[in-house]
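Q: Got a minute? One more chain.
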Amino acid sequence: MSQFSKTIESFWQESFLAGDILYRSDTLIVAANPDMEAGRQLMLLETTDGKAMVVLTPALADKLGLYHQQDLTEAMLRQKLQDTNVRLHGADYVFHFTEAERQALLQEPLPDDLRQLSATDDAMFAEFQSNASEQDLDNAYVELDHWVVFGSFEQDRLVCAASMYPWDDQKIADVGVLTLPPFRSKGHARRVIRAISRHAYAQGYEPQYRCQLDNAASVALAKGAGLTLFGKWDAVLSESAE
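A: Always. Here it is, folded:
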């Protein structure tokens, strides 16, 4: 039995198993879906149990010679992508809360120095962004006009913010977080992620946190916030989306 909720499991299965199943083994499933989201030609998910799921457009499946494939492994598929000059965008770790951690999370009160932000906080949020580097802003992707935004304060100053938006128009809420450099390693990001995640649960959404594989600080933050690694997600973008 999975340690994650049915909502999480169903989201990922529906994302990858829609369409025609081209190949199935104990460790790999490949499906061709003509209704892939605009901007994507392929998605790949490797879960922590060592299994992989791939969904791609019929055109790319044909280009890779995947129809009527008798034997296939993830390594063979990656080689086919390389041989045809099809480039993966770059994998992200995907983290979710387990069911057990969700129950613990929902029992926590909102700390006094955290609150939800709104459009009335635009001047304060603009000042917060002005104190962050362009690289940090790009990496975190925290915006005041996202679906929901929470902030953490020190002496009435906004020092950390997290925002969420529904991912792929599903009941999965993708979260980004940004802490100003002088206020890092003080627990702000951990607490604001947990606070905004409680809000997401109250609205019927499952929180999701993603980061690049080589971002050790973000990986540590995810684990510190109580999130558990679900898998690695990668994609091939269409030329128009690159």
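A: The first helix runs from residue 6 to 17.
Q: Perfect, thanks.
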